[in-house]
Amino acid sequence: MVRYCLALMLCLAGGSVQAAIPPLYQDVATRHHMPVSVLYALALGESKTKLQSGAVRPWPWTLNVKGKPYYYASFEEACQALKGFLKRTQMVDIGLTQHNWRWQKDHFKAPCDAFDPWLNLNHAAVLLSEGKRKHGNWVKAAGYFHRPAGGAPARRYEATFARHLKQWSVPSS
């Protein structure tokens, strides 16, 4: 539980463009040799919510079932809801980067582990890196993350991702 609370605090920290991206994203991005803005833009596109402060941030306790997002106040609430949904369907997207349980369950020991921000972001970084190796750029890598088979759904996702990436990228001098 302490690990989840610490990870949540790291996910919600804020400041300037680069500083506004919480430190956990930087740690994971550095580990996987990718720009932090890539990882953050992906999470923002997958699980963004508006906080009471008015800030828009990726939210770790997010589920998506049949296209409907569900946001929970705590890990415990989200985990309980996930267990309920999984009794009816395996097609549930989980956490910051919305890993689909049907396709990604082998990468987590238990369903609720996919809510762990560190584990969730690291697995997303692995998939993004694989997409970058196959397609040569981060926008196409995001399309691959969303739909490895490609096609129109991947292209639509790439367009949305590119907008988020532009918003969070640091301008070069």
Quickly describe the structure:
The protein is an alpha+beta fold and 173 residues long. Helix content is 56%, strand content 11%.
Task: Summarize the structure in words.
There is one protein chain. With about 170 residues, the protein is an alpha+beta fold. The chain has one domain (about 1-170). It is about 55% helix and about 10% strand. It is built from 9 helices and 6 strands. A 4-stranded antiparallel beta sheet has the order 4-3-5-6. It has a two-stranded antiparallel sheet with strand order 1-2. Strand 1 and strand 2 (about 55-60) form a beta hairpin. It is globular, with a radius of gyration of 15 Å. The relative contact order is 0.15. The model is unreliable at about 5-15 (pLDDT under 50). Keywords: Signal. It comes from Vibrio owensii. This is Transglycosylase SLT domain-containing protein. InterPro entries: Lysozyme-like_dom_sf.
Looking at this protein, list some descriptive labels:
single chain; two-stranded antiparallel sheet; 173 residues; alpha+beta
